[in-house]
Amino acid sequence: MFPTKIVLATDGSEEARRAAGLAADLAEKLDSELHLVYVEPMPGVYAYPESAVYEPELRNELREATERGAHEKLEAETEALGLADKVAGMHVAVGRPDAGIVRAAEDSGAGLVVVGSRGRGPIKRAVMGSVSDSVVRYAHCPVLVVRDGSRGDRAPGGPIVLGLDGSEESKLAVGAAAEISAATGSPVHPIYVVPAERQLYGHHSYSEDVKKSLMEEARTEARRFLDEQAAGVRSAGGAVAQTYLGTGRPDEEIVELAEEIGAGMVVVGSRGLGGVRRALMGSVSDSVVRYAHCPVLVVRE
Q: What structural domains does the chain harbor?
């Protein structure tokens, strides 16, 4: 599933350095090129003397100087990370970090973007967003988010939890989990979550016997689906340890399972809701990225 290039976004932070170890290990195991991208924000012109603000060439001069500084910082960071002999390409941009990362991924034909996240609290994250949120939303390829506090910096460093929901993106996630499992030897733990009773029945008033019958039917279909997806992982060369059938909220069940088995990675699909709809409704992948104790790979169509 993954093409031959992995793009690692770095900014010198501890989160980015943790992500670097995982990205380098994945690149080696997946036989992929490792590319680094560093984006330096454009300095504000109004920080300069008023006499210089109106110079026609000031913005171009600022961009060129900023880009030179960014090249120097990226080279220094590459050395500090011990990746000088492992990097196939380096990319520098000036401007918004999320836009620069997404553009570098597209320009290089990356099959995976790895980005660190500072894991802001839910209120600050909702109001301000984050670079990783934006990259997950707009990148053309899967994005692996490594949060501060994530356990391990190797790929994947433990079992792989595969969150399933029957969508096309979920099917792509199966392929991604299988490929990583085959390359690393980490077992996959697929999970599907059946809606709670109130979600399953809606506003209908059913007898207890009917409710029980509907729930049993839903769980039977879910179990069949889980078995099919597990077979798909195995046929693609991955290893399946155990399947899990949960009930309730998918994000909570996925995060709890990851914590319970000491997962080294969670793989989920994302339907890629637009900005407004995503802000109002959220998504399973958003929540898993925010609360999982380990790196989360978000696979989009």
A: 1-153 (3.40.50.620), 156-301 (3.40.50.620)
